[in-house]
Amino acid sequence: MKKTIFLLLLFMAFGSQAQDAVTLLKFEEAEKAFNSGDFKTVLEKLDEVEAMAQPTSKTLYLRIASLNHLFDGEKLYNNPEQYGLLEGLRNHVNTYLEAMANYELDDRFREVYQIGENLKKYPKDRAAWEKWNQEEDNRRNPKEYYPSGALKSITKTKEGSNTVAWQAYYENGQLKEEGEKIGEKKVGPWKHYHENGQLAAQGTYWDGGKITGKIGRWYYYYDNGTTKEAVNYRSVSYTDGTVRSHLWGQYLSWYKNGQLKEEGTFEKEIETLFGTGYNEGNNRKVGKWSEYYENGQLKTYQEYDEYGYHAGLYKSYFEDGVVKTSGQYGGYHGSLPVGEWKTYYENGNLKSLKAYSKDGYKAKWELYYPNGTIKESGRYNYKDNKEGNWEVYHPNGQLKEEGKYKYGNKHGKWSYYDQNGNLIKEEKL
């Protein structure tokens, strides 16, 4: 009965109340907002009109047309606001068609009828909409599971984009990594996590071609949250079937306690006559590089030339700061020891003194015992063979052996002594 009365009132002209100037002005404002495309304002104004007067076919038609403009079926997925528009639109369309069924067919009826027909392809009620959302979620966001049933990964479709949001999980449910993909290719900003939830790495993947690789500044972290490395990748290549990201610029690494571990600089990749090729580590160290112990003490200091070869000073230290090794790199081919190289025992005593030619060949050779006394001395030829006079000593400094080498073998007369300097034997080789 109430609905019949409503429908009768719906198509009555505005009575004396409806003819109120304010009511008419509100309706004109609604029409003006509709013509300008401001459909939300239309609905607000129609609410004000119907608060002062009974709804009419004109107000209902204007409401349906506005709701139809606001409703977007492409955005219905998991969107309660759009579902609310759908539900309201469907109810108003049914009311209008039922009330106008016995009146003369006109363009407005045809339009509303077609809107109703279009709505039939959408879920008929909230239960159907919720079920459709689940089905759409499975289609748009495919999931992968561990044998245990725990979620392993989920791919989330991004509307209007050729990328998808991707998340992977550890079996304990903790997020493992997240970012965007094009197919199987990682692109844009990514984050990787440790199994305890701490951030493991973050940076950007290159999206400028068929391959993907790390590009720009990347940070790596320990599972306690402290920074492990800060690096910069300049380019990406595909060689020998392997994608490589090449380090460029400042490099820093730290121990888990936050103490600086290593610092230096990388240069661009090496190009060869056979195309683009790379040194063994795919990166090229240049300039000064330093490595430290966990207590902050300098561990090694070394210098590299512009081609990535050892060049210049090299020093290494024991953890207490005592020098362990010192020398120079150089030579025609680079990365060769030249001049005198000294190594030390942890007590500070000299362990060896090795001299190299300008071409990196061994020359003078002296070895020492921990107490500082000489152990062995001699020379090498350009083929790295022992050559000429050689002497070997006991720890107390007494001569132990003496003789000559030729082409790396003992040759001629050799004499052997005990710890007191007494001759034990002689032999001729």
Overview of this structure, please?
It comes from Flagellimonas halotolerans. Residues 1-18 form the signal peptide. This is Toxin-antitoxin system YwqK family antitoxin. The protein has two domains: 2-133, Alpha Horseshoe (Serine Threonine Protein Phosphatase 5, Tetratricopeptide repeat), CATH 1.25.40; 198-428. Helices cover 24% and strands 41% of the residues. It has helices at 2-10, 21-35, 39-52, 57-70, 80-100, 107-119, 126-140, and strands at residues 143-145, 151-157, 164-169, 175-182, 185-193, 199-205, 214-221, 227-239, 242-247, 249-254, 260-267, 271-272, 275-276, 284-292, 298-304, 310-317, 323-330, 336-344, 350-356, 362-368, 374-380, 386-393, 399-406, 409-417, 423-428. A hairpin with a 5-residue loop joins strand 24 and strand 25 (423-428). Helix 3 runs antiparallel to helix 4 (57-70) and helix 4 runs antiparallel to helix 5 (80-100). The termini are far apart. Mean pLDDT is 87; it is low at 1-18 and 270-280.
What are the key terms here?
429 residues, alpha+beta, Serine Threonine Protein Phosphatase 5, Tetratricopeptide repeat, 2 domains, 23-stranded antiparallel beta sheet, two-stranded antiparallel sheet, rod-shaped, signal, MORN_2, Toxin-antitoxin system YwqK family antitoxin
Radius of gyration: 42 Å
| Main sheet makeup | 23 strands, antiparallel
Shape: rod-shaped
Total number of β-strand segments?
Answer: 25
Keywords: Signal
InterPro entries: MORN_2
Organism: Flagellimonas halotolerans
Protein name: Toxin-antitoxin system YwqK family antitoxin
